[in-house]
Amino acid sequence: MWVQTNTGQKLLPPIIRIERCRCVRCNGEPVFSCKQCKQEILLCMRCARRANHPHPLKSFRRNDEKILLLRRHLTLSYHEHIVSCQRSICMETCLESRYARHHFSVCADRPRQLRDIINHGGVVFNGIGYEGNSCFSCGLFITCMFLHAKRCQLSTCHVAWCEEIRDTFDMVSNDIYVVSDEMRNKCENVHKAEWKKVEDRLRGQLVEDILSIAL
Question: Which long-range contacts (CB under 8 A, 24 or more apart) does 52-58 make?
Answer without folding.
Answer: 57/32, 57/33, 58/32, 58/33, 58/34
